[in-house]
Amino acid sequence: xxLPFPQSRGAAAVTTATxxxxxxxxxxxxxxxxxxxxxxxxxxxxxxxxxxxxGEGAEFSCSHFALPVTKxxxxxxxxxxxESGVIxxxxxxxxxxxxxxxxxLDALFPGLLDAVLTAAEAQTERLGx
Amino acid sequence: xxLPFPQSRGAAAVTTATxxxxxxxxxxxxxxxxxxxxxxxxxxxxxxxxxxxxGEGAEFSCSHFALPVTKxxxxxxxxxxxESGVIxxxxxxxxxxxxxxxxxLDALFPGLLDAVLTAAEAQTERLGx
DNA sequence: GCCGTACTACGATGAGTATCGTACGACCGT
DNA sequence: ACGGTCGTACGATACTCATCGTAGTACGGC
Lengths: 129, 129
Description:
2 copies of one chain form a homodimer. Chain A is mainly α. Chain A has helices spanning 33-40, 43-54, 71-84, 102-108, 112-127, and strands at residues 60-61, 87-92, 95-100.
């Protein structure tokens, strides 16, 4: 049987429209500050970003993060992060790899990500969180 | 007739509970990152904060800001900013004066406010907003 | 005492969102 | 081909929120 969405069959110009396993991301120039701040204003998502930042450029599967929510909810949060431009996601086989878009964020909003990460760490220090 | 909430009658220990014209603010140590980011993630509120930052410590009445929303909505946004700890508000007669809590924010989250403001300016440059 | 100004309180509304459970799809082993 | 793992889709739910309009309160000035 032929698969409807062959991931490695070399089809030309594969996009989300033709293949749902290719995930849509905003281009760097389309990333906006407000959605980024909104994405970071949720405790679960902030934690994901912090964990990812600690791994400096590494790729993490969604299930790598031990989150206090179900898988459906987790999917939701990762989508918010991706659509706002904070992270990049791509499928590798059955797992989805996540990376921080640090280069894009730093280029657009210099110092912002670091300030947020530092603030988050400081708050954890301060309040135990 | 006696006023129920005399603002300048020197009553001792006047709080929000006794006088609604005394506005409640979070103490510096109670300010949390997530609500601050959430407060800043709205376009109208971000604009208020930017305008206020330009005035370096000055006090602005609510009506000073020409916002694209009604007065009720404006009240709502100022309250979100105050309750998250981003601004300080106090009554002076019939008007309400607003100031950025820059000292508190800088102490808790060094570089964050500046990064957000810079990012907002850059985005306006970039997209015309 | 009366009026105008500044802001609030309250209720409504429509949109968004954080959460879950269940059912399903894609992929990799074997 | 089969089963397991990883993640999605969809529907439901309850909550939050941005917005408005109307009615009202506090204060300053006349």
